[in-house]
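hiii, so i know i said id send this last week but things got crazy w the move. better late than never?? heres the sequnce for the chain we talked about at the cafe, plus the structure i predicted for it. fair warning i was half asleep when i ran it
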Amino acid sequence: MQLRHPRVALPALLGLGVLGVLGGFGVATTSAAWTDDAYFTAQGSTGTVDLRGSSDGVDFTEADSTGTAVTLAAVSGLTPDTPVTRTIHLWNASTVPLALSWATAPTALLDGCVEVDYQSLAGVTLASGPDQPVGAAVTTATVTFRVADDAPAATCSGKSLDAVQIVVQGSPA
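okay and structure toks below
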């Protein structure tokens, strides 16, 4: 094949070469743009978990560990027809909301003479309230003691319980 216009062929070849170089440079630039390092910063914070409990709603202590359980007053004079209910006051002194559950919750005491029923804490979440036990950071739960239905009345009626320790657990919600 012969070129009829050598003056046209040479600039065309040079133009294709320049386009090839520029195209290759563009590919290299695009590739480099996809592999650049990226850095970012963000602020983070920590939260505290501090669930407190009280048997009187005034004097709150830690309620979420075995060593610092809420102590309920002694129960005396239990009879089959007279259950005794105690109230536990709970305060989320944390900086994060807490979902509540019973951690230490005996269901039978005094060799099976006394049954213990706990108000459900399923779905109970306390708002954070680290400054004071008020509003959505506070709730109550009840614990009921009764002589078991199948307990022999002769040996179980009139029984008394010493102070009972209850532990409630709070997990970040």
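btw DSSP finds two helices and twelve strands in the chain. thought thatd interest u
miss u guys!!
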